[in-house]
Amino acid sequence: MTRDVRLRGRIEAAAAGLCAVLFLATLIWRDWIEAVFGVDPDQHSGALEWAIVALTLGATVAFSLLARGEYRRARLTSSRS
């Protein structure tokens, strides 16, 4: 693999990793919002936590696909040279 990956690809890969960590944290420990911020925005219904799980899962997949495209583009560019 070439070292010619653009900054954009690295940022997308980092964002995918961050979203994956947030996804797993929310999936495993659903009351982290109440513990960290000291508020209960959904009065223990769990709706906010499930929304965060869904959004972070979608963001993880999207950023992963974008980063994959950047890495593939860099590999194709380096193989042509």
What does this 3D model show about the protein?
This protein has 81 residues and is an all-alpha fold. The chain has one domain (7-80). 77% of the residues lie in helices and 0% in strands. It has three helices and no strands. The protein has helices at 7-28, 32-37, 47-80. Helix 1 runs antiparallel to helix 3 (47-80). The longest helix is centred in the C-terminal third of the chain and has 34 residues, at 47-80. The radius of gyration is 17 Å and the shape is rod-shaped. The two termini are 14 Å apart.
Principal-axes geometry comes out as rod-shaped
* Biggest sheet features: none
**Could you tell me how far the N terminus lies from the C terminus, measured between alpha carbons in angstroms?**
14 Å
Mean pLDDT: 87
Radius of gyration: 17 Å
> Helix/strand-derived class?
mainly alpha
Number of domains: 1
> How many runs of DSSP E, i.e. beta strands?
0
Percent helix: over 70%
Helical segment tally? Answer: 3
Quaternary status of these chains?
Answer: single chain
List the helices and strands and how they pair.
Layout lengths: L6 H22 L3 H6 L9 H34 L1
Helix pairs in contact: 1-3
